[in-house]
Design a protein that fits this description.
With 147 residues, the protein is an alpha+beta fold. The protein has a domain of 89 residues. It has one helix and six strands, in the order E-E-E-E-H-E-E. A hairpin with a 2-residue loop joins strand 3 and strand 4.
């Protein structure tokens, strides 16, 4: 057995060394829920010392889960509000708008997929050939997608 030389950790590239916390953009996070369908996260801006920072606005994020034909669908949406009472009042509309955006994005993805051109002899991922699995050829049916 041969011996291998290991590179000391100090000489290795450390991707964690590039992580920097933005202390000018800190928030305290609190979650409020009706334990049924609605949760709102309140993000209160704070200083690096942990004190409230009144120079920046408090943020509200609505969260819920809807059931779809493919299973649960988590919904997160920003809520424009001055306080928690107003955030809960605005919650239904914010969720509705988020769902409408998701549906439009899904329709756009379907349109893009429908506009792809299938080229005979090209399988998915470049698996072309005469058909069959393994050996020469590719997946039966051929056909590739050009975007």
């Amino acid at each position: 057995m041969g011996l291998t030389k290991e590179t000391p950790v100090s000489e290795q590239s450390n991707p964690l060394a590039d992580i920097a916390v933005d202390t000018e953009n800190l928030y305290r996070e609190e979650t409020f829920s009706d334990l049924k369908v609605a949760s709102i996260r309140r993000l209160t801006p704070v200083t690096a010392e942990g004190l409230d920072d009144p120079s920046r606005p408090t943020l509200f994020i609505g969260e819920t889960t809807l059931m779809s034909a493919r299973g649960p669908l988590p919904i997160n949406c920003p809520i424009e509000a001055e306080n928690l009472t107003a955030a809960f009042a605005a919650f239904p509309q914010a969720v509705q708008e988020a769902v409408e955006r998701l549906m439009e994005e899904a329709r756009e993805l379907q349109r893009q997929e429908a506009n792809r051109i299938v080229v005979p002899g090209q399988g998915p991922g470049g698996m072309g050939g005469m058909g069959g699995m393994g050996g020469p050829g590719g997946m039966p049916g051929g056909g590739g997608i050009i975007t």
